[in-house]
UniProtKB/TrEMBL annotation:
<protein>
    <recommendedName>
        <fullName>AMP-dependent synthetase/ligase domain-containing protein</fullName>
    </recommendedName>
</protein>
<keyword id="KW-0812">Transmembrane</keyword>
<dbReference type="InterPro" id="IPR042099">
    <property type="entry name" value="ANL_N_sf"/>
</dbReference>
<keyword id="KW-0472">Membrane</keyword>
<feature type="domain" description="AMP-dependent synthetase/ligase">
    <location>
        <begin position="24"/>
        <end position="357"/>
    </location>
</feature>
<keyword id="KW-1133">Transmembrane helix</keyword>
<dbReference type="Pfam" id="PF00501">
    <property type="entry name" value="AMP-binding"/>
</dbReference>
<dbReference type="GO" id="GO:0016405">
    <property type="term" value="F:CoA-ligase activity"/>
</dbReference>
<dbReference type="InterPro" id="IPR000873">
    <property type="entry name" value="AMP-dep_synth/lig_dom"/>
</dbReference>
<dbReference type="InterPro" id="IPR020845">
    <property type="entry name" value="AMP-binding_CS"/>
</dbReference>
<comment type="similarity">
    <text>Belongs to the ATP-dependent AMP-binding enzyme family.</text>
</comment>
<feature type="transmembrane region" description="Helical">
    <location>
        <begin position="219"/>
        <end position="241"/>
    </location>
</feature>
<keyword id="KW-0436">Ligase</keyword>
Amino acid sequence: MPIIFKSPYPDVSIPEDAAIWNKLEQHARENGDMAAFVCGMSERSLSFAQVLEMAQFLVAGLLASGIKKGDVVVLHSFNCLEYPVVFLALNRLGAVCSPSSPLFNSEELADQMRSAKASAVISHVAFAEVAVQASALTGVSLERVFTLGHPKGASGLQTIEAPMALKLPLSALPAMNPHDVVLLPFSSGTTGRPKGVELTARAMYACGARVAALERDAAYMLAVLPFFHIAATMIFHVTIFKRITTIVLPRFEPGSFLRAVEKYRLDTVNVVPPIVQFLAKHPLVDKFDLSAINRLGSGAAPLGHELVQAIRSRFGVPVLQSYGMTELAGTATHSSETVFRDGAVGQLLPNTELRVRCLDTDV
C-alpha cells in the first residue's frame, strides 16, 4: 500500500483560466497606481498599471517583429525592472520564456538555446555581445536578438524599449490557455547535463496562489535571488498574486542588500544558505538597522544547525526552511513561526501530496 501524505491546509481554488496575467490585469484596474516593482539601487519604480501597459505594448511589438505563439525565447539578464515585464509579455503572447544565467558565456548560452530550440533571445544590453555570439553559434538571425535595459540598445540590434515607445495597439488575442507551456527553465537535476523543465501557465499561477494562501500580508518583498532561478520566479508570482511591492536588486552585493533591508523595513527576507552565512557572520551587518526582520526564509540547500543557531543568536528570529524544485514550479513546503522545526522544511503546501516510494520494490 503506497504511503501518501496530504497537505494539512485546505485546497486553494485554481480557476479554469488560471494565468498570472489575469492577476496583473486585476491589480492594474483596482490599484493601478500602486508600485509593483521598485529598483533597490535607483529607486525607480513601475506601478501595476505601468507594468501592464508596458507588457501590452511589448506583446504588440514582438508580434510585429515576427515572434509568435509557441516560439521559445531565451531571456538573458540580471534582475531589473524590465525582466518581469518581458516575462509577462511573453506569457501573454503565448511564447515560451526560457530564462538563462547572466553569468553564461556565449558557448553556455548557445548550449541552452540549442537545447531549448530557441528562435529568439532577449538580452540585457550589458550582455549584448554574448547574445550576438551565441546567436551566431546557433543560427539565430540578428533580427531576432533584442536588448533590454537601455533605450539605445546595442548597435544593429532591436530593443524592447522601441516597440514600447511606439505604443503599438495590441490586437485582440485569443484567451490564454492555462495548459500551454509558458516557462522553460533549466534545472541541474541530479545527474548529467542541465535539463529544460516545461511549466504551464496553470502551474505558475498555482505556485503563486499556494504560497500566497499561507504568506502573511506585507508592504514589500525583496528580490535578491536571480530571476532566472525558479525560486525567484516564484517570488514575483507571489508578489503579483498578493499585490505586494517587489524591491528588485540586480544581484547580491552586501552593501546594497543591507541598505534595502534597512530602508524598506523588511519583515521577511528570502535568501539562500550563502546569504544566511553572511548575515550570521559578517561584521558589516552590525552597521545597519535590521531590527524589522522577524524571520528569514531559506531554500535551495539545507542549513546546518550551527548556522541556524548563529542567526537566532544574532537576530533572535527563526530561519524557516522550505523544499522545492524547478519541476514543482517552486516550493512544495511551507514553514511559519508557529509551525517549524530547526532542520525541517515545514509542511506541504495546499493542493500538494507527497508519496513515499521504495526504489527497490516500486511500492
